[in-house]
Specification:
The protein is of the alpha/beta class and 239 residues long. Helix content is 30%, strand content 31%. The chain has 7 helices and 15 strands. Strand 8 (153-157) and strand 9 (160-164) form a beta hairpin. It is globular.
């Protein structure tokens, strides 16, 4: 069963989607929310595997909600507006459904969700990689076999991840969430939704906007750490 949350400010829209989802026995609706703040509270407490998310809502949009999340469940946007489709996939949404939602398209989205959730569960069952282990990376016709500790930064690029090491930046077909589940927690830290950093590559740290941090890296780059992750960083690293 896929534990599912529906987020939409319109009650009729939520009821309509719930009626459609009754046709899919693998879906278990555990909660619904009428706004982003309600949804964030539910996600923190109940950890749904799948979220059907409206874009346009009062005060905060569906995209605003994703900005406040780090470990993101599978997201399927449901909206009456097609102009947000490109942005939805840029933030790693699993699918984008136009209202009124059609049963066949809904079924396709649920199949995508099942595959992603199964992959995530398989990753969680695997042992995390240690800093000294080597990993194989391939980008097109180029290949590398490097120590994990040589990777200084991993960045999200849609459904791909850009691996920074030495002078190279190959792309691999993995999401940041799936990589985060395999990497050594002693070596790597999820700074924000878009970046995972090597802790050994931090030069210095400064307080930043909205109670976050700004990491100055040894290669001269800067990485912003979100408020939620700043709290986690302090819990992990403080004496």
């Amino acid at each position: 069963m896929i534990q599912t949350l529906i987020v939409d400010d319109e009650k009729l829209a939520r009821e309509g989607l719930k009626a459609l989802l009754k046709e899919f026995p693998e879906i278990q609706i555990i909660a619904e929310a009428a706004n982003v703040d309600e949804a964030l509270e539910i996600i923190d407490k109940q950890k749904p595997q799948l979220v059907f998310l409206d874009v346009q809502m009062p005060e905060k949009t569906g995209f605003d909600m994703l900005e406040e999340l780090i470990e993101t469940p599978a997201i399927i946007f449901t909206t009456a507006y097609d102009e947000y489709a490109l942005k939805a996939f840029e933030v790693n949404a699993l699918d984008y459904l136009l209202k009124p939602v059609e049963k066949d398209r809904l079924g396709e989205s649920i199949q995508k969700a099942k595959r992603q959730i199964e992959e995530s569960q398989q990753n969680k069952g695997k042992q995390r990689l240690s800093a000294q282990e080597k990993v194989f990376i391939r980008d097109g016709d180029k290949c590398w076999y490097i120590k994990l500790e040589d990777i200084r930064l991993i960045e999200s690029a849609g459904n791909y991840a850009k691996i920074h090491f030495d002078k190279y930046q190959p792309l691999i077909h993995r999401t940041l969430n799936s990589l985060d589940e395999r990497l050594s927690e002693k070596l790597f830290f999820r700074a924000n939704r878009q970046q995972i950093i090597n802790l050994n590559c931090i030069e210095r740290i400064e307080p930043f906007f909205n109670s976050g941090f700004l990491f100055y890296m040894k290669d001269g780059s800067k990485v912003e750490v979100s408020r939620r992750q700043a709290v986690k960083f302090k819990e992990l690293m403080s004496l």
